[in-house]
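tool=predict chain=A
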Amino acid sequence: MSTTAAAPICRFSSSAIPRPSIVTTLQPKSGSAQIRSVTVTTSAATHLIEHIEYTDREGNHTSFDFSGFHKRDTPADLFRFTAPAGVQVVNAQ
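tool=predict ok
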């Protein structure tokens, strides 16, 4: 059985940098997109977002640093997801 995947709308790359973080960069395939790239830096240990940076098509750079997170206990039923009809759900455990 063969399946045809939809064409991706962006390129994706991810790399580890010397500190314990993961840097993921997204770039649109279309040259006419409003955003040239988005880079998200997450902590490898906690998976929390540390930094987001993006460049628009005019070359302007915008960045956000995140710190001081306070984790709270949340009830399991706080988040619920129901897949739309016809969507195949894959559980990665």
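Confidence is low (pLDDT under 50) at residues 1-6. The two ends are 25 Å apart (CA to CA).
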